[in-house]
Each structure stands twice: as structure tokens, then as C-alpha cells.
């Protein structure tokens, strides 16, 4: 019965279930990973120079598999089962933390079965690493008059670019919205633009990008100049309010003709062209890679 999680899970009571935000630092919440694949847990992966059996990072065997010297991978259809098999069930169960024998994000399980940095890897963490190496005293790899255009990007714990990237000296920064690979999206702000700059989160621009990647041909979300959601949103003939800071809708949904009754309606800001002006539907060409 243990080979059929769907049949087994109705008999399993999950231990200390947690939300993603509650996982300890250095761990990742993953659903269906503990207790025979029935429960979620905070997973701790192996670090550099630790023994390993695979890697979670998508670059290595699609994120689930064994990466060898020949570059071959295990059968991708086995990926979830292989990940479950890498879990040491009884580690830190009091905190709902389990340990995997796989390497963490951005590192590979090499031919010697040890977690190591791949010198050919690309992406946000790679750029961080190159920048840090260049700024080491005596490296000779960073010269102020030549390399001041370079900056250290901010990355998610999975190693992708965060929605908002800022560059430039303090007080003169410009922030832009980007996709997970660092390509420029709609939305930017300079430090002198105060409110736009301080509140910038790029949630709207990133959501537009996600919908376009999913094949949506016509995206009607309204994004502010800094990539945030505009407070008033309309789609399919209905309008509603959304909190730009959290991207959470609130209040009632009303027909377009009654949008002026919504708490977030502002005649001066909306204007007469609102329904035909869905910004952020195009992606400017720009890239964070250095």
C-alpha cells in the first residue's frame, strides 16, 4: 500500500504541518514530501562539499535526478519518487524539518557525489558570486572607473532574480522590474520619486509576465509606473479594488458603469481612457545579466 500515496494518505495524520513562511532559515517548505509523500515539511538540503545523491536545482537533471560526470540523468518520470527517497524522515521531526541527501539550489551533485559549484552555471546567484569575487581586495577584477555599472543583484532562495532590482549608489538608485531570469519588465522608479520608489514591489508587472507565459493573449491588469498594481482593476466587465502593497483584492465587485462607487475610485487618476489603457502588456528589452 505504501506504493500508492493516494490510498495511503487517508490513513496518515500529518505531524506539525507548517506554512512556507514558518520554515526555519536554510530550509524550504515542500508539499507531499514527508510521511510517505502524504505531508509537507521543511526540507534541509546538502551544502557545498557535503556528500550527495542528487540536486534539487532545475539546471541539474530538471531539478530532480542524479547529475554525473557524463551529464546523464535519471529517468525524469521518477523525479518525485527519487526526491522522496532522498528524505531522511526522522531528522528534526519535532520542528517538521527533514533532511534530503540532495544538494540545495544553485549547486550540483558532481561525479564524485559531493555538492560543488558548477563553474559554467548562469543566473542570479552566479552573478552574485562573480561580483563578490571581483570586489575582493587585491583581486584586480573590479576597477571603479571601469566597472561602476555592475551591481550585486538580489536573488530568491531558489536562485532566481527577485521582482525588483536596484542599482546605483545610495541616493541615486534606479529600481526596475524583472522576470525570474533578470529580463526587464514594465515598471521602474528613481530614488528621487520617493513614494513610487519606496512602495515599489513590481507585483503587477510580474503577474502580467506570468499570465503571458501561460499563454494569455490579452492581459487587462493595470500596473502603475513602478510595476505595482493600480488600486482600481477591471476585467470582463467588472471592476474591483486591490491593495497595491499585498496584491489582495478587497470590497465589492461592481459593473464597469458603477466603478465610481468603489472606495478606490479616483476620477482624477482614472481618467476617461482607463478601460482601454491596460499597461504592462509589453515587455521592454533589458537584462540584468553581467
TrEMBL record:
Keywords noted in UniProt: Disulfide bond
Record SUPFAM superfamilies: Thyroglobulin type-1 domain
Pfam families cross-referenced by the UniProt entry: Thyroglobulin_1
Repeat among keywords: no
PROSITE patterns for the chain: THYROGLOBULIN_1_2 (PS51162), TNFR_NGFR_1 (PS00652)
S-S bonds: 204-223
Transmembrane segments: none
Domain Thyroglobulin type-1 residue range list: 121-202, 203-264
Entry protein name: Thyroglobulin-like protein
